[in-house]
């Protein structure tokens, strides 16, 4: 982890100087004198958001907050990297990564404001397109920030969001606006972007359809289901994008965005300029590939349980178990135990198996247990009869490499672009999400047929059975949210899907998030910890910022 820490320390000096406000970024009027200047500042805004090869910039740090505080990953140990406070919900007020996210985001916002203020709409198609891209980028940043620092829209529009800085005046230092006001600005900006952008550019630039796609998500978060459906329809019915096939889906991250028919908008990372040695990238935490990457964060057991319901699911290929070279047959399961403090621990148990008399056994605490099979319509389950007379279900596989007792279920969803170990271009919106946005909106309107039809589009592509009705014991919304979890895992959406739907997050699975005293076994949607603290450095610069509650 040392390389990541060195990068963060360097960035903290550059972008977190407590004497400088992010609003102070002011381009020369000479640069903004003509259309070339507009293009220059727009490219600069993309660059601020995309970040760099050493984990700097907006997205690189935002991603850690969005994804690590969900329930799809487990970290196999502790780290001094500040992202650990996202993962274990022990938020701190001087988190370096949080400050970089705030600083980079507002620098980009100010850049967008400058472009919007200096150039008139209607001059020509190119100017309108670039202005539209700036409106889109500003909306994207505000949407990201209000969900990081403000409570979900569904929990109250009068809660504090983030400052609405929409002018290019450096003396304009607004306090925090309400969540509702920030969302109103996001919708306004995206509609303006939709209107202005009419040039057909590649999907590494904002576009009319990218604005409509993001509007679908924004309206879903606002629980404006009719509008979420309307804007999902616009994207789906445009015919411009196509879902990758079941065969191609596992190689999603290996493609450059421009050659991916499903990607609507992505930040493009190039192997020359945006990639150093690969050790500070998002993917480097998930896997060691070609000798590059820490490989210290793995798919969680609850995510694995969900996706293993259908072993033929194409999305399971994003998960790559790191087997030992000896290929020892084992069974394994997660067992709840009691730690020294009297709390619950969840630990993986691996036991070598052997064959005797045509049956499979393992030995635990001097007792031989037979492994039985149970055939279901979709898979074969394995179990043994435990000491209390019940069934303990297990997985039958080969032994795996482990770190601190955690098996290395590597995640390859953020790696291997163009065959380079940890190169990846983050996808901001893609077509599959549009079907799932629409499905959730239909579910909330009580339209079971349409909701299941959209879910089934995604399940058919994944190669798993479709639904003809809502399964017994589930609700329609559960079905949709499970499919969102399967499809959008490791894309930074799961946390928000849980809390905006006023659900508690179950984190009762193996991982270092349960270390220490009073861990969060469950994160209530009402908890203060689901929102991040305003960086203390920013409050020192701007005293009118009200801190989030402890």
TrEMBL record:
The keyword Membrane applies. Residues 63-220 form the SusD-like N-terminal domain. One of its GO terms (cellular component) is cell outer membrane. It comes from the Bacteria. SUPFAM superfamilies: TPR-like. Keywords: Cell outer membrane, Membrane, Signal. The keyword ATP-binding does not apply. It is found in: Cell outer membrane. It holds the Pfam family SusD-like_3. Residues 261-549 form the RagB/SusD domain. Coiled coil: none annotated. Signal peptide: none annotated. Belongs to the SusD family. This is Starch-binding associating with outer membrane.
